[in-house]
Amino acid sequence: MKPRRPRVTAIERSEHQFFGRFKSHEIDIERDSYGANWYIRVRHPDGCYVYDGWWQESRCHSLDDAILEACKGSCLVAAPKGGA
Predict the structure, then answer these.
(1) How many domains is the chain built from?
(2) Higher-pLDDT residue of 79, 2
(3) What angle (nearest 5°) sits at the alpha carbon of residue 70, between those of residues 14 and 61?
């Protein structure tokens, strides 16, 4: 079963960039071009970054996958059981 996608509020979205909010956190995702890895930043409401870095081996993943990774990687949603 495919994981359910979190309902993230999109403020700006294009082919290679995303800015939005989820659970009061700011999510900023970008990549230079198709085939490049995604860079993800998730900022807590107090200003600290809870995710700030390259998503390794992400060049074949979609923007929606990167949004899900941002939420999982910053512990805003639970990872599916089984560790995947």
Answers:
(1) 1
(2) 79
(3) 60
Neighbours of 7 (CB within 10 A): 6
Return left, alpha or beta for 42; rule: phi > 0 is left, psi -120 to 50 is alpha, else beta.
beta
Taking the mean position of all CA atoms in its chain, how far away is CA 40? 6
Contact criterion met (CB below 8 Å) for 72 and 81: no
Whether residue 1 lies inside any domain: the answer is no
User: Is residue 17 within 8 Å of 29, Cβ to Cβ?
Assistant: yes
The pTM of the full predicted model, rounded to 2 decimals, is 0.87
Domain assignment present for residue 62? The answer is yes
Look at residue 4 and tell me if it is in a domain: no
pLDDT per residue as tens digits for the range 18-77: 999 999 999 999 999 999 999 999 999 999 999 999 999 999 999 999 999 999 999 999
Provide the β-strand partners of residue 48: none
Domain residues for the domain of 28 are: 9-73
Is residue 26 in a domain? yes
